Amino acid sequence: MHPAFSVIFLTTLIGAAQGLFLALFTAQSYAAFKLLPQPDAHAFYGQGSLLALMLLVAGLGASFFHLGHPERAWRSAAMWRTSWLSREVLVLPAFMGVVFLYGLAHWLDWHPVLMTLPGGLPVDPSAILGVAGTVLAFGLFICTAMIYACLKFLAEWHSPLTVINYILLGGASGFTLAAAFASVTAPELVSFLGGWAAIITLLGLVSRSASLYRNARLKPKSSLQTAIGIKHPKITQKTQGFMGGSFNTREFFHGQPVAVLRSVKWFFIVAVFPVPLLLLLSATQGGTAMLAAAFIVQYAGLLAERWFFFAQANHPQNLYYQSIA
Amino acid sequence: MTQLALVIDLNVCVGCQACVTSCKEWNTAGSAGPMVDQNPYGADPTGTFFNRVQTFEVGEFPNTETVHFPKSCLHCEDPPCVPVCPTGASYKRKEDGIVLVNYDKCIGCKYCSWACPYGARELDEQQQVMKKCTLCVDRIYDMSMVEDDRKPSCVKACPTSARLFGDIHDPESAVSIAIRESGGYPLMPEWGTHPANHYLPRRKTRIKIHDDELERADNPLKVDRQLPKPAMNEPTLDDVTTW
Prior knowledge:
The complex is a heterodimer.
Chain A: H1 5-32, H2 41-64, H3 84-107, E1 115-116, E2 122-123, H4 125-149, H5 160-185, H6 190-216, H7 224-228, E3 235-239, H8 247-251, H9 258-272, H10 274-282, H11 288-312
Helix pairs in contact in A: 1-2, 1-4, 1-5, 1-11, 2-3, 3-4, 4-5, 5-6, 5-11, 6-10, 9-11, 10-11
Chain B: E1 4-9, H1 18-28, E2 37-38, E3 46-47, E4 51-60, E5 63-72, H2 81-84, E6 90-92, E7 99-101, H3 111-114, E8 122-123, E9 130-131, H4 137-140, H5 153-157, E10 163-167, H6 174-181, E11 198-200, H7 211-214, H8 237-240
Parallel strand pairs in B: 1-11
Antiparallel strand pairs in B: 1-10, 2-3, 4-5, 6-7, 8-9
């Protein structure tokens, strides 16, 4: 497939935002149970939510560049019963709204006790919004990943590993960003968030390696024989019917030599996993520059990872476009 | 339930591209707007087409066969492009099974083209909406045309009658009979899309001619025997057999 930068930025930006929100609410939950010191709510939760919201808006903005008719984008909420893309279109704004309200509740110090848990823990609006946001964050990960994983023709994507990778890689970049952000606003949480970022990055390494291993061993279900229905071991295309390009030759081919594909793969394997891990582990006691570098390197790696994700997928329609003339 | 479809006979397709040009001619002039060409006289021309004819070589030299392969939307009975559309712009008509795109609802997200294993959908570069074969839906129901013209443009154009059009759910239609009796098959059956369009395979036309069909066994005058002619006084079959 041809990797579209609009979709690469959409999936990586909102993935980091979802991970960042999950990191914020994880810290709040730990603090509620007195497992972590209570950070400055204004700076950490309030501005952290604002940062997540800005990433979400940037991702949503990038997605509009993918559309031929962005002014009709509102129509895409219609078919949520059948289309994962439609479901994503509904869940993304819902998640943005909850992140906004969550940040607002912390910013305004709006903490009326709505009910009390059996242990005597007070539940305020930010806790309920946090739970709703967590559900929506995971829902959005699933919707985004299922857009690709539900397409059975693209064997490289048609796997539960696609969903797991989107969750873990988005979560890793979000927790790394949260650690870098906490080094400025809530230094007491840096080792906690950095530790989780390292753990999720390691889990991401395992699941992404599993999908690389799987995809390297796929056997295509379709062949030229089934594509034109002629049972002969040797069929070659003499012409695809036209000399110039068409949508079919642009949208489904990445057009890069194998060497580029291989270098992008190794770049993302290094930039998403070991480099941020080393930076995270060496900066658990602070070190904003190191943590910021960890996030920037990991995010750059994720851009490459997403590019490779698209480029690696081999569409069966390509069987019909093997030879110009 | 009606399911309109094309049946394409690969045995008689000669790859003349008449269906490609007549399709483009009819559909670019329709009320839905042109099928736009970009850079048509430049170095890298490109444009929207509903139908293409490709050519494949089967076998190894010298035992090869050239197969011309017309390719358009197959109007699947279980179209994978329809449920993925987020706006409902892609739909399959209940009344005749044609898969269509509502150009006024399409947002140009290209997701349906990813979900089609045949590459039947193309994004129009100028209108920025997804386009595909409509089975000439603006033609086949046009009562102002004589009945013989109410067929897709490609079917009308084919000089060798390689393209048949009809209802594959009617067991007595010409297309159903062709599928049933001439070995019609769908493309990429492994995906379970149940394409409505079928293809008829290449067929070897062989006729076994026995020697006695060329030369009468009973040939008293021996007029069409091989040279040199036998003498007239040699015995004929009538002389040596009893009937």
